[in-house]
Specification:
single chain; about 650 residues; alpha+beta; GIY-YIG endonuclease; Nucleotidyltransferase, domain 5; five-stranded mixed sheet; about 50% helix; about 20% strand
Length: about 650
């Protein structure tokens, strides 16, 4: 990109100090956040010299930049991570995607619980993990709750629950427990989670043999299954180190502009799991590697020891993480780091071609879209409406940036009374872009409506009404309701080759917006269908609703309750209202049931031949004709039952 006067002037202001720089596009959106030991040298390098394809793509979109000077390189690194987390720039590597791996938490006290958590907040409790494969953590917690008689319930009840009768709980909720015995159980659980399982397996084996000798074969089989479960869980820990240390080890491999990083998580000498990321890199690989580690520990527990490969800036990591960072030189730890590096290289070789082909496909699709509309197209927004006969009328908006879904920008809309699909489209477009204009936010490069000329005209009318500069297009579908072509604002069809990457991108957009809208519609519809009778009664809020449902767990039991019994849970006036609502129209329903029974009996008597002739419509039906087979007996029964149902409908409508 040519060096503009604006950027040239700002480059001259850069200091010889460490800090962070923020690259922006023409709309002022943040493209990339980086750190530098010397800001002047690092930022200038983007606008001079030759870059690889990835960096060239970034530089081509930079229209402005800002910088923040810091006192030390450590401050610059921490600031960079916080800015990335806050703004989520598209060209920065978001390795962990803010994901926190699950931990197993053992709470304090004799009435402790063992549960899954993703937030290490209470330092008084014991935590084990992280577990990148969450099923392993859930399997372990399930096994512990089966093996040890520990508390299972989140809230204490007042009577014994099923777990107590299954001998899986000591009954903390209703009786006094020997605290020393309970604390011994806690120590056993801690040892079990640390990998010392022989003690538990020995106890289970003794119980199994005793049960077999007493001819309790079903009990012996249950104990055998528990022993096998322990072996199964342990088998997942594929690497067992001779020393029961706990540490993390990281390594990386870079080639062709893509960086692959591996992380090994070892706890009590066992490899819990490993994590892998491969992403395009726009900075020095060493800097990206440091950013990866800091991003990871933003949401995960920092161990006492971390091993990294040679060339890593251990000083800055130690200052930022306040833990010991070591570059192994020899022995088992050096072999481990070599293994991590080998895994990173292997993952890069395996996945590079797939990721590279996908990136090339997206680049080709967005380039083709830009050529069609004769302008750069980076952000595409697309709407879809969903309803059933006008009920639960909603709309969904999805946003794609450079061919990738930006789910943080997705929006859901509950629309007003349904009139037509065109009116629904007008409403949602007016709400969306009037707000963007009011908040002075950038408009998308392209608005795509999931429809033809009618939807395009609807979008155009709102655009003109709001006075916006907005490019609009629609999708043309074939008789199988699949995308066939693009439709521009002048209603000109732009044919799409089914092998064109743009065709696949538009199909993905269409599927995604449909999924998003229909999921929201189903959620609202399900919520409406499962609405409780308690929701419509004044004086019953969430707390009282829980109390009523706890006392009367079914509608049948609630209806069987007297006013006095209801008044024991809620105030008398509220109880009277609830009782009336539960029993309203009961007399009408009984009367309707009696009349229904009479009509059905009368129809059945007629079918059974208790008459010689009867009118059905305008035709006289004779019993002799039925017996002679001239009239179909089943057809006559159906006709009579239809008349009966019509009478029922009429009766029901008068009652309502």
């Amino acid at each position: 990109m040519p060096l503009t006067d604006h950027i040239a002037k700002k480059l001259a202001l850069l200091p010889d100090k460490p800090g962070c720089y923020i690259m922006k596009d023409e709309n002022g959106d943040i493209l990339y956040v980086g750190k530098a030991k010397i800001l002047k040298n690092r930022v200038r390098s983007y606008f001079h010299g030759v870059h690889n394809n990835k960096t060239t793509k970034l530089v081509a979109r930079i229209q402005d930049f800002e910088f923040i000077q810091t006192s030390t390189e450590k401050e610059a690194l921490l600031l960079e991570i916080n800015l990335i987390k806050r703004h989520r720039p598209p060209f920065n590597i978001m390795f962990m995607d803010d994901k926190m791996y699950p931990y197993i938490e053992v709470t304090k006290g004799p009435d402790f619980t063992v549960r899954i958590t993703r937030k290490v907040v209470n330092r008084k409790n014991d935590y084990f993990g992280p577990y990148p494969v969450s099923t392993y953590a859930y399997d372990m917690v399930k096994l512990i709750n089966q093996l040890f008689p520990i508390r299972k319930c989140k809230t204490m009840g007042k009577s014994a629950c099923l777990y107590y009768h299954m001998h899986q709980c000591m009954g903390f909720c209703f009786q006094k427990i020997d605290e020393q015995e309970a604390l011994k159980n806690r120590e056993k659980v801690i040892r079990f989670l640390k990998g010392y399982t022989d003690e538990v397996k020995g106890e289970l084996t003794e119980k199994m043999q005793a049960a077999a000798q007493d001819l309790q074969f079903e009990r012996a089989q249950e104990l055998l299954e528990q022993i096998r479960s322990i072996d199964y869980v342990q088998e997942k820990q594929t690497i067992d180190f001779s020393v029961r240390d706990s540490f993390d080890a990281f390594g990386w491999y870079e080639d062709k502009g893509y960086l692959s990083i591996q992380g090994f998580f070892v706890r009590q000498g066992k490899l819990l799991e490993r994590n892998m990321s491969i992403s395009p890199v726009y900075e020095e690989s060493e800097d990206a590697f440091l950013a990866y580690i800091l991003q990871y520990y933003q949401t995960n527990t920092v161990p006492k020891q971390i091993y990294v490969p040679a060339g890593t800036n251990t000083k800055i990591l130690e200052e930022a993480l306040q833990t010991k960072i070591t570059i192994p030189q020899r022995g088992d730890r050096k072999k481990l780091i070599d293994l991590v590096h080998a895994n990173a290289k292997e993952a890069h070789d395996q996945k590079f071609q797939l990721i590279y082909a996908k990136d090339r496909e997206l680049e080709g699709a967005t380039r083709h879209l830009s050529q069609i509309f004769k302008k750069p197209v980076h952000t595409v927004e697309m709407f879809d409406n969903s309803h059933i006969s006008g009920a639960y009328n909603v709309s969904g908006l999805v946003v794609f940036k450079d061919g990738k879904p930006d789910k943080s920008s997705y929006r859901k809309y509950q629309l007003g009374e349904y009139i037509s699909d065109t009116d629904s489209m007008k409403e949602v477009i007016r709400r969306r872009y009037a707000r963007l204009a009011k908040e002075d936010k950038p408009m998308p490069d392209l608005l795509l409506v999931d429809g033809g000329a009618g939807q395009i005209h609807a979008a155009q009318s709102i655009r003109d009404e709001l006075g916006l500069n907005l490019t609009i297009a629609g999708l043309v579908k074939d008789d199988k309701h699949t995308t066939r072509a693009l439709l521009d604002e002048n209603l000109n069809e732009i044919e799409l080759d089914k092998t064109d990457p743009l065709f696949f991108l538009l199909t993905r957009m269409q599927d995604e917006v449909h999924r998003f809208a229909i999921t929201y519609h189903k959620k609202l519809r399900s919520k409406g269908m499962t609405k409780s009778i308690l929701d419509d009664i004044p004086g019953i809020g969430p707390a009282r609703k829980k109390q009523i449902q706890a006392r009367f767990p079914s509608l049948k039991k609630m209806k069987a309750a007297t006013k006095e019994e209801l008044a024991q849970v809620v105030p008398e006036k509220v109880a009277a209202l609830l009782y009336t609502r539960l029993h309203e129209n009961e007399d009408q329903r009984e009367d309707l049931a009696l009349q229904t029974e009479a009509i059905v009996e009368e129809a059945q008597e007629e079918v059974d031949g208790s008459f010689d002739g009867e009118f059905v419509g305008e035709d006289l039906i004779d019993q002799d004709e039925i017996e002679d087979g001239l009239i179909d007996q089943d057809a006559l029964e159906d006709s009579l039952m239809d008349e009966s149902l019509l009478e029922l409908d009429a009766l029901e409508s008068t009652k309502s």
